[in-house]
Amino acid sequence: MSSMLNKIKPSSHKNEDKGDEQQFSIQPHPAQTNNPRDLEPPQPGGGLNSNPEMQAFHTPGPYVPSPSLMQNVEKPKTREELKARSAELNR
Questions:
Q1: φ/ψ (deg, to 5) at 5
Q2: What average pLDDT score do residues 65-79 get?
Q3: What is the pLDDT of residues 13-48, one digit of tens each?
Q4: What is the DSSP letter of 58?
């Protein structure tokens, strides 16, 4: 009966008799920084952050209207005109 059990035992038990010990080694971590986002690949549909062209530093700059458009804009009202209009609307 014991010969049959020896045949069924896994082969890893045979190494215990030899006195071999397991050896472990340290593997390098794939991260370059401490930011966990660096390990994630870009995700489709991840919003504006996944598209580098839509980030804040890729804007074209402030809007400057053309001189012809500026000529068609009415002049700002004075304080007295604004107070009179406010009084008219608050009646």
A1: -65, -35
A2: 93
A3: 555 555 688 888 888 877 778 877 777 776 666 666
A4: G
